[in-house]
């Protein structure tokens, strides 16, 4: 146990490190969701179709998906301090390139760099949480992390639409890049990978518990063991279906749907994606805490998957419109996807603690693979029903195109339900250490 003064210092250091990493994570969500609000600007600036716009926005997800396993390796070997610092620097440079892009190819390059940079932030943060917080509170801290991260996505919805009344979309992305670079420098100066690097004993030592053994073999063997662990993979499919479809919709197609089908302005339409992202933030925090209190992982994940599937079907095939019904549907879509936070806790509980970053990265890969596929797929099915209508050079789609996209999203959520059914219960304990 630490003396009271030393424990207070530990708390200040722990939460300062957490705050810095969370600020970088908020920028991850901002970069992820902002294209949905500036979709019409991008179509106009680069003269794109729906499918091409989807591919531009999804460039972030393509590289993010590929980088998730390497991110886990980096988090487990180099540690969050180095991986997040370098990632934030690259993301900041990419955002500046995107904001200044004169053509579609340059914009795609900028978007690629943003995805490459931010791809390491989440896994690094979650890996940091495993050593700065106790296992008994991991679900709660994970939920808090996702809640705060989603503040970034909320800023990329309604507030961003309001800012765009005064500043161009290009200026916004350049400013976001500068902020990411500043956060990178602060991360390098103040973040430490483990309490021991800041002069404290480990969290387990403070609690009078035995230390987790460090891995005694090359990271490649650890990675192979994680990839071959069938009990980690169900979380991959849950995130592929539920969260991937939500990110594709809220990050690109949610605002155009309300504009094209219901005639709302960009500012008014963005309130609906704000509702979805707020629901997602609340769901992530509430379901993480609820899972810890319940002492179960599987029922929470399964319930979230079923609610997501029902919500997509309701949006696509039941009557609704602007106002309370629309806001409620968007919010419930986000709330249901918040259950994905529990998959990270479940994944790390099926591998040795030294390999937690790799397990979290594997599960996280499903999320971004789902979004990378769904974002252009939604645009493709919308293009199939496009009647040739253009407004200021921007394609306008009818309800039939959006309904087809919503039906595909429901199919993705159904796949997540299958994954949740195959999730093995851990009772919130690491099963590799269970007696």
Would you spell out the secondary-structure blueprint of this structure?
Blueprint: H1 4-37, H2 39-46, H3 50-77, H4 80-100, H5 104-118, H6 121-132, H7 138-155, H8 158-163, H9 169-190, H10 203-206, H11 219-227, H12 233-262, H13 266-294, H14 298-317, H15 324-337, H16 341-348, H17 356-384, E1 390-391, E2 394-395, H18 399-421
Helix pairs in contact: 1-6, 1-7, 1-9, 1-12, 3-5, 3-6, 3-17, 4-5, 4-6, 4-9, 6-17, 7-13, 7-16, 12-13, 12-15, 12-16, 12-17, 12-18, 13-15, 14-15, 14-18, 16-17, 17-18
The helical percent reads: over 70%
Number of strands: 2
Largest sheet: 2 strands, antiparallel
First and last CA, distance: 25 Å
| N to C succession of SSEs | HHHHHHHHHHHHHHHHHEEH
Q: Outline, from the CA principal axes?
A: globular
Beta-strand fraction estimate:
under 5%
Superfamily (CATH H level) name:
MFS general substrate transporter like domains
For the record, the count of structural domains works out to 1
Low-confidence stretches: none
Structural class: mainly alpha
On the 0-100 scale, what is the average pLDDT? 85
CATH topology grouping: Growth Hormone, Chain: A
- Named at the architecture level, the CATH assignment is Up-down Bundle
| Backbone CA Rg | 21 Å
Strand order of the largest sheet: 1-2
Number of helices: 18
